[in-house]
Every structure is written in C-alpha cells, then in structure tokens.
Amino acid sequence: MTFTRSATVDDVTGAVSYTDWTPTAGDSFAAVTAPQVPGYIADPQEVAAVAGVTGDSADLSYTVTYNAKTPESTPVTPTTPTATKQPTVTPAAPVAPTSNRLPTTGDAQNDWLAIAGIGLFAALGLVGMRKREDTEK
Question: Where are the alpha helices (DSSP H) in the chain?
Fold first, then answer.
C-alpha cells in the first residue's frame, strides 16, 4: 500500500508544512488465503481483510505456520465376538477313605540294629582297654 502527501515551503520564513498522508489505491487489504502445500495444513488458513488503514497505522505482520497432516484412519466397527465352546469337565466321584486312622511312619522296631550297635561299642571298648593296658606296662 502506498501513501503520498504534499509539502509546502513558505518562501519568507522557510517553514515547511505537510498535508495528511493519503492512500494512492484504497485504504484496505483484502483477505489472503494461505497457499496449499501437499501433506501440510496452514495455521491460520486465511488472514482476514483489514480496512481503514491510515498513514499513522502500525505496521501489520502475520505469520502462517504449516503443520504436517496426521494420517487419516478409518474407524473400525466392532463386531460381536463368536462364542467359543468351553470344554466340558465331569468331576470324578470322591473316593471314600478306607480307615479313620492316619498312617504311622517311622515306628518300625529295629531291635537287631540296637543290639548290633551295643555289641560294636562293647567291642571297641574292650579293644581300647586292652590297648591302654599294653601301653601302661
């Protein structure tokens, strides 16, 4: 956008006076659509029109950001699952106990083992006594 103004110089005093800034081709900007870039989305997609721009208006600056498109996914319609056949289990009939008495373990009488142990200790004792008698002499 272009603005112009006129300046007048007083020949006697040398003072310069200016007229107001005037737009040469209108005082507005049309809306601008961001260019399409394959695979990207512009944000914003359009910059709004601006009207009433004067020579004293602030500078206007707009930034358009492009973001990568996310792949579109097709929603999946859930289906009703098919029933799976469960195995049939037939419980076995309970076995009745044969006796109300618990089994006894470790109760066996080993008399012969006890006699053999006593005999072994007696023999070792005799050998030990005889050896002691021989060393004392």
Answer: 111-136
Q: What fold is seen in the domain 1-70?
A: Immunoglobulin-like (2.60.40)
- Report how far residue 40's alpha carbon sits from residue 70's, in angstroms, rounded to the nearest whole number: 9
Give the whole-angstrom CA distance, residue 125 versus residue 114: 17
Structure-block tokens of residue 26:
């209108």
β-strand pairing of 22-23 with 3-4: antiparallel
pLDDT by residue (tens digit) across 72-125?
Answer: 777 888 888 777 788 888 888 887 767 777 767 666 667 777 888 899 999 998
Does this model's pTM top 0.85? My answer is no
Residue spans of the domains in the chain: they are 1-70
